[in-house]
Every structure is written in C-alpha cells, then in structure tokens.
Amino acid sequence: MLDHNGVRWINDSKATNVGSTEAALNGLQLDGTLYLLLGGDGKSADFTPLKRYLGGDRIRLYCFGRDGAELAELRPEVAVQTETMEQAMRQIAPLVKAGDMVLLSPACASLDQFKNFEQRGEMFARLAKELG
C-alpha cells in the first residue's frame, strides 16, 4: 500500500478471481471515492456477484485487458474501459484527492498482458509511486 497526499493506492494484484475481489470489497471503508481497477483474463468467470459491491455514487470502475468490456458492463454509467492497466492509472491519477482509494483487485488472471500477477502488481506499485 502507498499513501500519498491522503490517497491510498492498494495493490491486490493477487485477486485473480471474483471471490478474491469480493473479499477485498466486503466491508471496505473509505472517506472518498473508490477507483477500482478490474481486468485481465477472467477465464469465462461470472462477474455478476461483484455487482452488490459496486453501488453508490462514490465508485468508479476502470476496466482493462481482455475482459475489460464485460467488466465495464457491471456499472457502465461509472465505468471507463482502457486497453491496459497503465492507461487506466494515468487517467485516474489527475482525478484523485485526499480520502480517495485506488484499488487494484482485478478479479482476473494477468496472463493476457503480464507474465504473472506479481509482474502486474510490480507495475501497479511503480506507477502508484510515479503518479501518486
């Protein structure tokens, strides 16, 4: 986790399936807006269980990778679709303010764009330091 200027950047790249992302979102407490990074290779998973955690007006979805379009359909009115996680993070960076959280909990495998979830997490951490 990186906390910079009151914005928390949380790396949960290990959340490679829907259940792991549900666990990350369950009971999440924050003061500001949640910028949730979702995407990769969902391996034909059913993403609909995530919907119950994506309500309210203080959430923005940034969906990337092979299944980004499908994930964006969970809440299209607050979703942005990008090709890569880096593109998503570069769009998020100028929007965040103190109290906000940027959470990488992708609900998907990383193999469509990365060697493994560790490499995806390392890129998130590097970009969080650069952009945060």
From TrEMBL:
Residues 4-108 form the Mur ligase C-terminal domain. The keyword Signal does not apply. InterPro entries: Mur_ligase_C, Mur_ligase_C_dom_sf, MurD. GO terms for molecular function: ATP binding; UDP-N-acetylmuramoylalanine-D-glutamate ligase activity. Pfam families: Mur_ligase_C (PF02875). This is Mur ligase C-terminal domain-containing protein. One of its GO terms (cellular component) is cytoplasm. Keywords: ATP-binding, Cytoplasm, Ligase, Nucleotide-binding. One of its GO terms (biological process) is regulation of cell shape. It comes from Klebsiella pneumoniae.
